[in-house]
Amino acid sequence: DSGVTQTPKHLITATGQRVTLRCSPRSGDLSVYWYQQSLDQGLQFLIQYYNGEERAKGNILERFSAQQFPDLHSELNLSSLELGDSALYFCASSVGQGSTYEQYFGPGTRLTVT
Amino acid sequence: LAKTTQPISMDSYEGQEVNITCSHNNIATNDYITWYQQFPSQGPRFIIQGYKTKVTNEVASLFIPADRKSSTLSLPRVSLSDTAVYYCLPWGGSARQLTFGSGTQLTVLP
Prior knowledge:
The structure holds 2 protein chains of 2 kinds.
Chain A: E1 5-7, E2 10-13, E3 19-24, E4 31-38, E5 42-50, E6 53-57, E7 64-68, E8 74-78, E9 87-94, E10 104-105, E11 109-113
Chain B: E1 9-13, E2 18-23, E3 32-38, E4 45-50, E5 53-56, E6 61-64, E7 70-75, E8 84-91, E9 104-109
Parallel strand pairs in B: 1-9
Antiparallel strand pairs in B: 2-7, 3-4, 3-8, 5-6, 6-7, 8-9
């Protein structure tokens, strides 16, 4: 158990819909990362927050957005969903914001868009 | 951008030492090299991190030559439970560099 929690575990929704994925980082971790993993794309970095502020953006679509709240939990919002958005979405957290800090990954949310 | 190249798959037998090499020719000066392990439908898990020479912890060793253009993860005496995908990640803290490669599927056979 990494100490990172993600809800829900599974999500099934239809095309065009909007969903929110939630992540609670490990106690004391200030940095949160979001990743998407699909069979054909591998593990893709989406976005990073550090202590409530957006720090880095990766391959995140404009239909996707995220935020980190004062209590440090984070939410990833996916809108106008397409079939290709079906994937595992992982959240990770670390104490600091740089590359020397180990990232702890959550169990993931499996999103299925039908 | 430190693009990585790893073998797609490797097979080994229980009790053997396994070495997985990752090539990262364009590694930047401030990049650290981190290796992660991932089991099916689970999030990756940190194994080891290093900058140069050799690093060892309770589960693995990491060898990084002087030019840092490659790194080798060494798993001593693997067991069936080590069957997983292994990723190397050279990263200096920039979003553009945070790219996990395709990883190496290690299969440990009895």
